[in-house]
Amino acid sequence: MGSNHVDRLSNMPDEVLSEILSLMPTKFAVRTSILSKRWRYNWTLVTNIDIDDSHPYHDLKIFSTFVDRVLGLCKTTEIRLFRLRCMQIWVQKSSVSKWIDEAVRLNVSELDIHVMLLELPLSLFTCKTLTKLKIESNKYWDIMDWQTPFNLPCVKTLDVAVFCNPSRNAFKLIRGCPVLESLSLDIAACSAPEEECRFDIPTLKQLKLTTFKGCNFKKVVLNVPNLDDLFIAGPWHSLFVMEDLSSLVSVTYSLSVMDHLLVELLKGIIGAKSLSFRTTNYMKDLPGVPLLNLPNLKHLELTDDGYKFEQIIIFKFLESCSELEHLSIKTAQVRWGNEPESCWFKPHIVPACMLKTLRTMKYENCKWRKDDIKFLEYMLRNAEVLKTLTVTCKSELLEEQMRLCAKLLKCPRASRYCEIHFVGKSFESASS
Q1: DSSP 125
Q2: In the chain, domain spans
Q3: Phi and psi angles of residue 210, each rounded to the nearest 5 degrees, phi first
Q4: Terminus of the chain with fewer CB atoms < 10 Å: N or C?
Q5: Could you count the other beta carbons within 10 Å of the beta carbon of residue 315?
Q6: Where does residue 194 rank: exposed (0-12), middle (13-18), buried (19+ CB within 10 A)?
Q7: Boundaries of each F-box domain copy (predicted)?
């Protein structure tokens, strides 16, 4: 390019180079040190430190030495993010604790730790600069000093995943965050039938509770007056008591709970405007359980997990949502066990929302069974203000798909403005 070529990238201000290098994983930022003398120490100005134990690290000693040097040579006085992922190498708890301590010394704002073994350093207990904290440990993690309480005055986002015993570690951490706005708590397993789990967090706006193997608290109490987004998933076997959810807007339930516990869960969300609900094999008696009225609900999403998705459940929800405007139904792509030939249920009375408010409906993974056709025909015949029906088809046979689509298109519609859209593998899109 000629002898007068100017290396404009290298001539950029240190602040700009720091921003560029901070956008990549730290191991790549460090590699730029071999480019020239000008670049030898540019990487030490990064404001994000993102380290994982994947290639090219071959053993624990090499990996630990690299992390020590990165934190030791870092020249910035403030780092926005320190992310440490050790999923292949079993790093000692003492090393992880030392690295977190170094990040606190560098006035870290966001801390993201995913390791096999974990012990938190004392310096983290009172970190004043931390605003976002994510901790995930594949095994049991301890707090170093049981007598020292957490005091994290600026933490607004907390994401914690623990193997067991959340009352001994996770809840102690939660109580130390007085301005918490977003909380995600994932508990692998917990058997504590004598314990009451309370969430008294007036500042909280988002709450996500998940469990994999099951939680068996005596009671879970939610006193979160400013919460607007609630997500609960997994096999919970605890009684949920909704003391105050007066600001709730959006709710997602992907639960394995008994029917009487579900009713208690629904009691606390009567003011919600959006609900996403996944059926499970635990809810065998749900068709016979009276659901509460949800007068403010505008959006409803029902998902089948592959066990038994009776249409009576759909209509039970429709009857409970008198002001519903948008309905989405997702049937299972794979179904467990043998299906009955027909489980079609025709309601005695058309739900009120179908007569005055229901405007859009999606029916995903339609397999064109008799029940599917009857249900869709019923909706078209009775939804008086429906504007759009979208059907996602699962049949692989083009001729069968087109024949059944034609049948649905010929069905009388209560709403003269209703359009039907079809989406499937055999054709990109069709509508009428």
Answers
A1: G
A2: 1-46, 279-432
A3: -135, 150
A4: N
A5: 21
A6: exposed
A7: 6-60
Q: Give the pTM.
A: 0.83
Q: Which residue has the tokens 């029902």?
A: 302
pLDDT tens track for 304-363: 765 555 677 888 889 999 999 999 998 876 554 455 555 677 888 999 999 999 999 999
Identify the pLDDT of residue 273: 95
Pairing of strands 388-393, 419-423: parallel
Burial class (CB in 10 A: 0-12, 13-18, 19+), 303: buried
The alpha helices in 106-230, defined as continuous H runs, are 170-175
CA-closest candidate to residue 418, choices 374, 361, 337: 361
Above 70 in pLDDT, residue 8? no
Q: Which two tokens stand for residue 304?
A: 């089948």
Angle at 54 between CA 53 and CA 60, to 5 degrees: 40
- The C-alpha angle with vertex 352 and arms to 404 and 256, in degrees rounded to 5, equals 75
- Give 213's strand partners: none
| Closest C-alpha among 252, 232, 120, 240 to residue 184 | 232
* CA proximity to 134, closest of 94, 93, 186: 186
The residues that bridge with 301 in the sheet, in sequence order, are 276, 328
Within a 13 Å sphere around the CA of 103, how many CA atoms are in the beta-carbon half? 29
